[in-house]
Amino acid sequence: MLHTINKSPFEKNSLDTCLRLAKPGSEILLLEDGVYAAVKGTAVEQQVMQALSDYTVYALGPDLKARGIEEKRLIDGIEVVGYDGFVDLAANSERVQSWL
Amino acid sequence: MGNGAKKFMYVNRRAPYGTIYALEGLEVVLIGAAFDQDVCMAFVDDGVYQLQKGQDTAESNMKNFSPTYRALGDYEVTKLYVEKESLEQRGMSEDDLMELTYEDEDDDYQEKPSIRIVNRGELTDLMEQQDVILNY
Amino acid sequence: MAFEIGGKTYETDEEGYLANLADWNPEIADYMAKDDDCDLTDNHWEVINFLREYYEEYQIAPAVRVLTKAIGKRLGKEKGNSKYLYELFPYGPAKQACKYAGLPKPTGCV
Q1: Tally of domains within chain C
Q2: Is there a contact between C8 and C53 (Cβ–Cβ < 8 Å)?
Q3: pLDDT tens digits for B16-39?
């Protein structure tokens, strides 16, 4: 299953809850304000690094760019995808759960 | 329910009155119930507050829509999963929730509880069984 | 929109549903029914009163499928079917009867 998170981890608990309930082996895509979770040195960095051992984590490139987040600031192991990659992820998953 | 019925789960994660999510989500469930799918609801995080018993909005000038959850059984929405961890985190237990029941047509119309408390692992498994998951 | 009965004005929405639930009285149902060329019989009132009770209890106007089932349970099988209810309320039992009962349009009703 593909899980998407579009809320900042500092404003909403969408990331926490997704990580609590998503089955290991799932894909997680950070987009819109969700991409702030992908940045190194934040209060949620440890949590995201921990998640990388259970899930494949992606961040949406255009949303990173829009927010001035350069790829070198991302936590190692997070893959950046474009809209086409987003479409592929969605198309290759049986289900998508959008954590709002 | 036909064989083509898909499994739908509506995941509710917001408290009832502060935002419109809970009410909108409930309305979507009621509308969706007309389409003869296999529908269940999950209550996670602040979503568990939607089921708190004793809600009274008389003095706050808002519509109290908590009685509408009791109509869900009539709409054949009979599985309301509540995450145990979310309840505990908020100092709540099943006793704090409304009593919601449905009549089981396959069992001589016996009244049965709709609310099922599940832990996070059970909820994860339930989510994996769905065809469609919608979050509110 | 609005209409007047006995010098009192009642607000409605653009489809003629009463704006304020609390304004309702039986005269309003009669007035709305006359407007649709419909004379309310005891059978009509049974359904209208049932809908008001349902709304009072659940804060929702039931969908037609739910109404049909619930009427059957309360008033008997011969009344809990869509043929009977559509004969009483040809514009649609949930829609038309809810309007006379002063309730909002049923959720999910188009």
Answers
A1: 1
A2: no
A3: 998 999 999 999 999 988 888 999
**Which residue has tokens 């593909």?**
A2
Task: Look at residue C78 and tell me if it is in a domain.
Answer: yes
Q: Does a structural domain hold residue C84?
A: yes
Q: Are C73 and C46 in contact (CB under 8 A)?
A: no
Residue C62 C-alpha from the chain's centroid: 11
Neighbours of A68 (CB within 10 A): 7
Residue C20 domain boundaries: 2-100
Q: Who among A14, A21, A98 is closest to B127 (CB)?
A: A21
Residues of B in contact with C66 (CB under 8 A): 71, 74-75
Examine residue C106 and state whether it is found in any structural domain, yes or no: no
Q: How far apart are the first and last CA of chain C?
A: 20
A22, B120: Cβ pair inside 8 Å? no
pLDDT in tens, C63-85: 888 999 999 999 999 999 999 99
Distances (CA, A) of B123 to A26, A33, B33, B117: 15, 26, 22, 9
- Domain with residue C32: its CATH number is 1.10.10.370
Residues B110, B112, B115: CA angle, nearest 5 degrees:
165
**Main-chain phi, psi angles of C5, to 5 degrees:** -130, 125
Q: Is there a domain that residue C107 lies in? A: no
Which ipTM was obtained for this model? 0.88
Per the structure, the count of domains in chain B is 1
**CATH number for position B81:** 3.40.1260.10
